[in-house]
Amino acid sequence: MKKRVVVLATAMTAAMIFGTTAMAEEGGLSGKFSLFHFGEKDGGGTSKAFWNAVEKFQAANPDVEIDFQFTDSDNYQEKLTALMAGDELPDVWLTKGDMLPTFADAGSIQAADQYIKEDAEWADSYVEGAFTDTTYDDTAWGVPFQMQANCIGVYNQAIFEECGIDGWPETWTELLEDCAKIKEAGYTPIAMGNKDQWLAESAVFNTYAYKYIDQDWFNSLANNEGAKFTDEKFVKALEGFQNIAQYFNEDMNSINQDEMFALYYDKKAAMFFDGAWSVGTMIQNCPEDVLATTHVGLMPAVEGESGTKYDTAAGAGWNYVINSRVEGDDLKAVLAFLKAITTGEYADDALQQGFISAAKTSENADMSTLAPLFAEYYDLAAQMNNCSIFDCVLPAEVGSGVLYADTQQLIAGSMTPEDMAADCQAALEANY
Known about the structure:
Layout: H1 20-26, E1 32-37, H2 46-60, E2 65-70, H3 73-85, E3 92-96, H4 100-105, E4 109-110, H5 113-116, H6 120-123, E5 135-136, E6 139-140, E7 143-144, E8 148-149, E9 152-156, H7 157-162, H8 172-184, E10 188-191, H9 198-209, H10 215-222, H11 232-244, H12 257-265, E11 269-274, H13 277-285, H14 288-291, E12 294-297, E13 311-315, E14 318-323, H15 328-340, H16 345-353, H17 372-381, E15 385-387, H18 390-393, H19 396-412, H20 417-430
Helix pairs in contact: 1-15, 2-16, 9-19, 11-20, 19-20
């Protein structure tokens, strides 16, 4: 496996490729393309900002024909794999960093950075580190649209207080003690919806692991430079995570993320851990009385271990890629579209929708109008030490494969930490 290297797009020339920026503003674009995505029209957060940007682009470019192909996020990766197997990939689609090597090595996609670098305005629009999860073999293949934490704690302060808990725990021991009190009071301490396998590993365990390991260890693992899943500190992380599962709902592996949210909405669960996208979801869908007492916190540190509460798996995660077959007017339209739905007004709107985009906000961004819950998260995000997301960097067979499946078994108690570590290591070695 080739090493994953961070490459930031920078302005190489003053020329704008194909003049797409000016053409988009003047409505001079034509062409057509298909887009496979998971942005729900009635969703919140990233979906809301996406569709707002789409509507503006379409209004300015009525001669561009876009075939929107939607699949919900829980089933998206499975459907994408099927499209690739059947040689039916669309013109543009969303992909995670761990899938880039497969698409790039197969010649299925064309590098995005060759175009972004030619547009000085576009290249300068992104925040530092935005292209980390879009880069493979020194090339930025994708266009990022978000920069957010893969894990935050979301909790109901009213339930906490009812159970005699003052606020969000600072240490893992305090969290365990709080969970015991909450369970005794008849609530589910931590809601979990891991039916589709990704949530427990990517959105929760990934960050928990950084309480034991650090970025250097992960880099060594990902680049085959010595670290192994079977190292003692990673096995200890698996042990600790298996222990906290006693405070999840019993049907944790039978319900999905939306059903997990429902447990929280219905005041059956006191808290949950999920990605920062859940902030936008809470703002959009949470009942007003529950939202009024909902707050966010960082995952507590584990006493005696090297990680801190600030160490959080975070990044762009997903990104848009362009099919290698797209060219001519269709390509011009695609590039203008991707710029419009990832930068500029999109970045300012993202804040209002409850998430942080991969692009820089403008001086016109009104921070005073942020939803209170998102304002809380925004302050937390500024304190985070962003660490690599396992399933965006490791080979797909490992990150989105064995890690997902084995974590589901781990929290169900049907696999030991030692067996999971050995299984993951064997899968990693098989992909070098």
